[in-house]
Amino acid sequence: GFTIDIKSFLKPGEKSYTQRCRLFVGNLPTDITEEDFKRLFERYGEPSEVFINRDRGFGFIRLESRTLAEIAKAELDGTILKSRPLRIRFATHGAALTVKNLSPVVSNELLEQAFSQFGPVERAVVVVDDRGRATGKGFVEFAAKPPARKALERCSDGAFLLTTTPRPVVVEPMEQFDDEDGLPEKLMQKTQQYHKEQPPRFAQPGTFEFEYASRWKALDEMEKQQREQVDRNIREAKEKLEAEMEAARHEHQLMLMRQGKIR
């Protein structure tokens, strides 16, 4: 086999061996050795972390870059090892936080710099829309859990300001989703309920299904309207607070100027 040129897979500014490069490997044979496990991944460069739980048939491995991990996952997921198909996915990032209330002037670099006071940051990203405009949200991935916990506690207890605007950021644990692999049929739990399920269809008017489907739709519509009303109320309250803040700031500056003139 050939070995991949690893250096070309680290993107500009990307840190190596981060938690984003960590793969979960499931359905391992119970008699696998660490050497066998490492040999599976040897063409993807030198790993920095190798862990195997033989009793439960799973392991973790951390490669140098995200791209290498993606290639390894694409090539090895579903391959047969001792008559067992390997199940490979990205490991959950245990030290990632979402950050809200970001000012439009906050960049990835400023976000990383601000949160580095709590501990080493692997990656900080300001989320933008499809036109590249800041959405007011971002996320920070720490190298370990303790600094992430520290950031969460300090930002909950205090008011952490990243810019001139006295609007503190809101920090929360990041929800983890796998929106890439989803739930393929082969991984479905084949329960009794699964075998009783009917195929996809539109409910026919006049039936029991249609009556209850209509009631669910009405409830969903009510939820949507109430959420929209709450969003409007919050938006108006934020605009009011913004206006009050600007007026108070102006008043404060005038007062400072007067004091300067008196002296």
Automatic annotation (TrEMBL):
Which regions form coiled coils? 220-258
Principal location class: nucleus
- An example molecular function term from Gene Ontology annotations: RNA binding
Q: To which species is this protein native?
A: Pelecanus crispus
SMART domains from the entry?
A: RRM
Protein name, UniProt field: Paraspeckle component 1
Keyword Repeat appears in the UniProt entry: yes
For this protein, the record's PROSITE patterns field holds: RRM (PS50102)
Q: Which family does it belong to?
A: Belongs to the PSPC family.
Q: Which domain of life is it from?
A: Eukaryota
Localization of this protein? Nucleus speckle
For this protein, the record's Pfam families field holds: NOPS, RRM_1
Cellular component, GO annotation: nuclear speck; paraspeckles
| The RRM domain, residue ranges | 21-93, 95-176
Keyword tags: Coiled coil, Nucleus, Phosphoprotein, Repeat, RNA-binding
